[in-house]
Amino acid sequence: MIPGFRMQWPITSELAVLRERVHAFGTSAGLYGQRLQDLVIAAHEAAVNVLRHGGGRGSLIAWRDAHGVSLDVVDAAGTLTEAHLRNARPDPDRGGGVGLLLVRTLCDEVRVEHEAGSARLHLRMRTTPQPR
Predict the structure, then answer these.
(1) At what angle do helices 15-28 and 33-53 cross, to 10 degrees?
(2) Sheet holding 109-115, edge to edge
(3) Rounded Cα distance, 64 and 7, in Å
(4) What is the reported pLDDT for 4?
(5) Cα(43)–Cα(63) distance, rounded to whole angstroms?
(6) What kind and span of H or E run contains 121?
(7) Residue 72 pLDDT more than 70?
(8) pTM across the whole model
């Protein structure tokens, strides 16, 4: 895969297709094993968040560089905030809250950005060791 080349897919209710695409992308970007599975799970959970709690539509943008892979999960409604991400905790009474906690736990970097009325959840997984 060419570093910097971006792939983009719509977020729809066909999450199995999205997982397959992210898996293929991650594999071609050099992820394998648990790191690859973590990327797929994080992408799935972020997409579910868009479908259930956001505007119900969005897109996933994926690219790689020399140090890792990035996914931007865009919620067209712009409802996700940094506070949602920071305060993500499972809520057994409502049966939610696990998705963003998983995303935060599985990825090396996670942040929320807002632009033009949409929210962009940026996920990053390193493919090279972190300097100490």
Answers:
(1) 150
(2) 7-11, 58-64, 68-75, 118-126, 109-115
(3) 10
(4) 67
(5) 13
(6) strand 118-126
(7) yes
(8) 0.88
Q: Report how far residue 106's alpha carbon sits from residue 96's, in angstroms, rounded to the nearest whole number.
A: 17
- pLDDT tens string 27-46: 999 899 999 999 999 999 99
Among all chains, which residue has been given the structure tokens 């956001």? Answer: 54
3-class DSSP assignment, residue 56: coil
Cα distance between residue 83 and residue 106, in whole Å: 18
Of 47, 48, 20, 23, the residue nearest 37 (C-alpha): 23
Q: Could you tell me the pLDDT band of residue 96, with boundaries at 50, 70 and 90?
A: low
Given a contact cutoff of 8 angstroms between Cβ atoms, the answer to whether 40 and 23 are in contact is yes
Is the distance from CB of 115 to CB of 72 less than 8 angstroms?
no
Nearest to 79 by CA among 116, 110, 118: 118
Give the torsion through C-alpha atoms of 57, 1, 112, 99, to 10 deg: 70
| Partners of 68 in beta bridges | 126
Q: What is the mean pLDDT of the chain?
A: 87
Give the DSSP H or E segment for 73: strand 68-75
pLDDT in tens, 4-26: 679 999 999 999 999 999 999 99
